[in-house]
Backbone:
């Protein structure tokens, strides 16, 4: 087993981090308490192509860089941690196959545990907003994003199955 990351994996990871920053900061609908967009796609791609650790790095690094270079609000490391955990969850579930039986639970954990419960708590701490009231407004976002992410990841997995053979051989 090779130690470290190959140049190919590093380049793919760098491109996916850059894509996530652009999708998150410039192609998402963001308010102080909600965010709807397609920034999950590069993190899911990292999970499928590279594995759980690299997907966690993709999510966490992209969140940190996006918050530092293009701030939407106050930087809070808790959001970076949940972004990294999102990549880790995707990576653990998508490591071998990306069937609906694996995609749905990964998306549900990310949307309802990391996004709804934990990130809502962080928002309530940052902005002094009542936690239960935030949950009520953000549950709709989580439900919509669950459907969008599930469909998006299943389509992404099919596309990447076609593309994967043309990528250089990468150990996971």
Residues:
């Amino acid at each position: 087993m090779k130690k470290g990351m190959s140049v190919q994996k590093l380049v793919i990871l760098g491109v996916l981090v850059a894509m996530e920053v652009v999708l998150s900061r410039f192609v998402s609908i963001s308010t102080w308490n909600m965010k709807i967009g397609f920034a999950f796609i590069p993190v899911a791609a990292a999970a499928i192509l590279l594995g759980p650790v690299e997907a966690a790095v993709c999510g966490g690094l992209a969140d940190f860089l996006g918050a530092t270079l293009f701030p939407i609000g106050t930087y809070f490391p808790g959001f970076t941690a949940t972004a990294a955990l999102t990549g880790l969850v995707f990576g653990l579930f998508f490591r071998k196959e990306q069937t609906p039986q694996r995609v749905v639970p990964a998306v549900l954990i990310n949307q309802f545990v990391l996004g709804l419960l934990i990130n809502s708590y962080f928002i309530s701490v940052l902005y002094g907003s009542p936690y239960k009231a935030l949950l009520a407004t953000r549950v709709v976002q989580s439900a919509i994003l669950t459907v969008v992410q599930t469909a998006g990841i299943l389509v992404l997995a099919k596309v990447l199955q076609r593309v994967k053979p043309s990528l250089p051989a990468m150990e996971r």
Q: What stands out?
A: The longest helix spans residues 131-163. Strands lie at 29-30, 35-36. The chain has six helices and two strands.
